Amino acid sequence: MATESQWLPIARIAEQMQSGQIKARDLVERSLKTIAGKREFDAIIATLDGRALARADEIDAMVQKGDTVGALAGVPFIAKDNFLVFGADTTAASNILRGFEAPYQATAINRLEAAGAICVAKANLDAFAHGASTENSDFFTTKNPHDKTRVPGGSSGGSAAAVALDMAPFALGTDTGGSIRQPASFTGCVGYKPTYGLVSRSGVVAMGSSLDVIGPIARTVEDAALVLDVMAGIDPLDSTTISRDSSSYTKFDDIISRKKIGIIKEHMGEGVAPNVKAAIEASVQKLKDAGADVHEISLPSATLALAVYYILMPAEVSSNLSRYDGQRYGYTFADAKDLDESYTKSRGRGFGKEAKRRIMMGTYVLSSGYFDAYYKKAQTVRTKLINEFNTAFEQVDFLLGPTAPTTAFKIGENASNPLAMYLADVMTVAAPLAGIPAISIPAGESEGLPVGLQLMARSHHDRELLNLAHATEELLA
């Protein structure tokens, strides 16, 4: 069960580090001890003990010399295991990458380390980020901190569980169709998906390249905003990156009474569990009581978003996974008689069922005779959805709804039903298709299980969205 956090707010940790009140080594040792003490939740694939402690000693020495340390000085964090990080293998929780050592680090990791943060562990995930429950990991299934019989969500389930279990003040996740926000909802954390391109993806294992974003999972909106503040901005190693806001993402004020918020009609109808709907409606009432102008708004194509996503995403997955062929790196079938058998056996044994399913789906929709019927049509509907979001944001400042249609489901409940598993993303896929920022914040609990409230803003309005989320978080506390 998740407990009261042992960690101070991240900004406070950095302040105490700078003043010499606490030591980075003590923080890292505390984090590693907590990880070791909660192994039964299977949130962590590997720890980086040696490198983490060495970095902590470097930062402590800097403080002792009177040098200025960064905004995240001494703060331990956990990276989803699809980030390239020195000190442990990068596997993406797939057998085909067992034993792979990163030749360089992800830009996001480098920027966090430059600000003084210390990566202490790699978190479990659905292999190659393909899933909504972390049951698709080739290694083990992560358990929900609130109920060990339930999933923590996915694909960043290990990262979300680690934060909820107090293993570190924050963790990194990736979000292609909801993989930061949905596990944050299931575990009672804050999960932030930035505007597409705001954070560099260099050094992160690709899934769907027109959809993938990197973001933080944290205890509070303020902590998530501070982490984003460090990571955001243009990177010459990622041509899709965009300019960051000129102001800090941590500048907050009370804006609820001055903003119009639209409740997405299509996200509050059939398929939403009554307990989830009740929690969202209670949150809406609090926003109204605080002076917000909240009313229903329709996004007609939102009902098609899941179908569009499960055409476009597998198409991009099939392309991105073609590099794992057993010839250059990763698992190789050593006893192959010829090149054809090497390809077949390496990929056949290295990839799990879900990766194979998505490769086949993607190859099919891109194949001759089906490209126009599926892929091209899906891109047309994607454009229609983007236009509907743009129209909605001419009427309101923000959009609101549940993060997921249910609370965390039982381990194994949807494992043999891919369609039921895919439906766990039904509320979250629209935002990445449109490239807009979205956040999940806790909106209470139902029968001991967290419920997440999702807020969305137009592209490039990340600071405004974090501002609203922070004010809403305080309102719901």
Could you explain how this protein is built, in words?
- With 477 residues, the protein is of the alpha/beta class.
- Helix content is 38%, strand content 13%.
- It has an eleven-stranded mixed beta sheet, with helices on both faces.
- A hairpin with a 2-residue loop joins strand 10 and strand 11.
- Helix 2 runs antiparallel to helix 3, helix 9 (305-320) crosses helix 11 and helix 9 crosses helix 12.
- The two termini are 19 Å apart.
Entry summary:
This protein has 477 residues and is α/β, with parallel strands linked by helices. Helices cover 38% and strands 13% of the residues. The mean pLDDT is 96.
Q: Could you outline the blueprint of secondary structure elements for this entry?
A:
Layout: H1 10-19, H2 24-37, E1 44-47, H3 49-65, E2 76-80, H4 107-114, E3 118-123, H5 157-164, E4 170-175, H6 181-187, E5 190-193, E6 213-218, H7 221-231, E7 260-264, H8 274-289, E8 293-297, H9 305-320, H10 339-350, H11 353-366, H12 371-395, E9 398-402, H13 418-422, H14 430-434, E10 438-446, E11 449-456, H15 462-476
Parallel strand pairs: 2-3, 2-4, 7-8, 7-9
Antiparallel strand pairs: 1-3, 4-6, 5-6, 5-10, 9-11, 10-11
Helix pairs in contact: 2-3, 9-11, 9-12
